[in-house]
Amino acid sequence: MKLKPLSDRVVLKMVEAEETTKGGIILTGSAKEKPEVAEVVAVGPGGMVDGNQVEMTVKVGDKVITSKYSGTEVKIDGEELTVVRQSDILAIVE
Fold first, then answer.
1. Residues 9 and 87 sit within 8 Å (Cβ to Cβ)
2. Cα–Cα distance between 36 and 75 in angstroms, integer?
C-alpha cells in the first residue's frame, strides 16, 4: 500500500535516534526521546490552503527537522510514518 498525501501534507519516516550518548552511555528504549529528524517519503501537490497559495519546498529524500509532537502517526505495511503539514517542518538538514 502506498500513501499519497493531499494538499500541503508531507509523509515522513522518522530517523532512529542514536543508541549511545557522546560519553558512551547506552540508552534504553524508554530513555530515548522521540526523534525530531525525519526523511521525506512523499509530498503533496501544494495548491490553495486556507485561501493562500502554497508551494511545496521539500522533496522526497530530504532530511528534515519537525516539531517534537507534530503530525499524525500512521502504520502502513508495518512501517511507522508521520503525516505533517509542510508548515510543521522547521528546517531541511543539509
1. no
2. 18
